[in-house]
Amino acid sequence: MAKETLQRGCLPGRFPATAVEIESTASSPPDWDAYVGSHPRGSAYHLAAAVAIGNEAFGLRTTYSVAREGGRLRGVLPVVEQSSVLFGRFHVSLPFFTYGGILADDPEVAAALARHAGDRAQARHASHLELRHTDPLSGWHPAHRLDKVSMILPLPASEAALSRQLSAKLRSQIRRATREAPQIEWGGAQLLPDFYGVFASTMHELGTPVYPRRFFEIACRALGRRIRVLVVRSRGQAQAAAILVCHGSRIEVPWAAASPSAKRSALNMRMYWEMLCESVRLEAQAFDFGRSTVGSGTYRFKAQWGAQPWQLHWHYWLAQGAVIPSLNHSNPKYALAGRLWRRMPLWCANLLGPHIARSLP
Fold first, then answer.
1. Strands (E), the chain
2. Are 221 and 117 within one domain?
3. What is the DSSP letter of 304?
4. Quick check: is 65 in a domain?
5. What's the sign of the alpha-carbon dihedral 202, 208, 209, 210?
6. Which of these, 252, 202, 195, 203, lies nearest to 227 by C-alpha position?
7. 134 and 23 within one domain
């Protein structure tokens, strides 16, 4: 357990100085989830069981850092350590998901947690620490990325209103999928084999190593009732599938995939329509299409549904001489690996992929 103390200032003659103690442990304290649930920026992924997904699925070192003042919890920061031959060792809050980073009562506590995490990254000889926030982090390191956004669609109160706010072209594509007589199935972990078949094939086409099915099984257990799995079948075969996660009044789709034939027949559009309709039925206020790079193809796909960009703020501690990482296809190393991966037989990619995916944030 690592521990340090932040001394707060005081107003002379009025209030005594106070100390905020920061400590890091390998397991979550008992009041962690209560704090996450009460914080306005808390997400499903901040919950202790979700933070542990990387450790349970891949054995990744996971740290729960907390700030306390007079014994009261004032802030939390989950951090996961990853490493790879190509990119070295690095720390992320949180990998595998869009949302993570610091939750704190005030900027001073947030900055103290960030400095503490940077010190721990340095002690572990990491090249960088990445904190994924939805708000700017003040009073800390200036390294900062603004190229990522979440695409959010405010939802109306009815499916009829939802249909009216879509373009005629989108409505036509959704209707076109009816020719395939799609079967729509909602469920939970029992649908993961169907989801994974579509997802693994799609990741191979994109040149991206796939997570093992065990990762999604663990995620479903960790997130519990917040998880919904959708499978769209045609002629008895799963053609498109997605996993949804409920965040309070918002529903997010962190993972979705469709076969090439599903895209040709617009079954992928029918899948998104079904997800939006289900979100309306569940009385969600907004649908989160997930993370995109501004101007990318996925950004434009989501924007056509009316989704608006919500700026993400990724902050970094960097080791001396290090630069903000680019662990995506804009990195020449990553792009070359992706081209080679697409040429690999699917069975081989599915066998090797899980060993590599554990190192991708």
1. 2-7, 19-25, 62-69, 72-84, 88-93, 103-104, 128-133, 144-145, 148-154, 183-187, 227-234, 237-247, 250-258, 286-293, 308-311, 313-318
2. no
3. T
4. yes
5. negative
6. 252
7. yes
Helices (H), 26-150: 32-38, 48-51, 53-58, 107-123
Whether residue 263 sits in one domain with residue 134: no
Our count of domains for the chain comes to 2
Task: Answer yes or no: is 357 within a domain.
Answer: no
- Does residue 197 sit in the same domain as residue 301? yes
The string of pLDDT tens digits covering residues 172-219 is 999 999 999 999 999 999 999 999 999 998 887 776 778 899 999 999
Instruction: Identify whether 349 is part of a domain.
Output: no
Q: Is residue 12 very low, low, confident or very high in pLDDT (cuts 50, 70, 90)?
A: very low
Parent domain of 14: 2-146+313-325
Q: How far is CA 148 from CA 101, 192, 196, in A?
A: 15, 28, 26
List, in sequence order, every residue forming a beta bridge with 130; answer none if it has no partner: 92, 316
Which residues, at least 6 apart from 175, have a Cβ–Cβ distance to it below 8 Å?
none
Q: How confident is the model at residue 14 (pLDDT cuts 50, 70, 90)?
A: very low
Q: What is the CATH number of the domain that holds 102?
A: 3.40.630.30
Is pLDDT at 347 greater than 60 in this prediction? no
Phi–psi pair at 247, nearest 5 degrees: -120, 85
The rounded distance, in Å, linking the Cα atoms of 39 and 37 is 6
| Of 353, 97, 98, 90, nearest in space to 214 by CA | 353
Q: What is the C-alpha to C-alpha distance for residues 280 and 286, in angstroms, rounded to an integer?
A: 9
CA nearest neighbour of 102 among 49, 36, 152, 55: 36
DSSP-assigned states of every residue in 158-169: SHHHHHHTS-HH
SS3 302: helix
Closest alpha carbon to 38 in 64, 72, 61: 72
- Domain co-membership, 254 together with 222: yes
φ/ψ of residue 288, rounded to 5: -100, 110
To which residue do tokens 């100390």 refer? 19
Same domain membership, residue 291 and residue 172: yes
Q: Is 217 in the same domain as 139?
A: no
Q: Are 83 and 70 in contact (CB under 8 A)?
A: no
**Residue 270: HSE in the Cβ half-sphere, 13 Å Cα cutoff:** 24
Claim to verify: residue 261 and residue 131 sit in the same structural domain: no
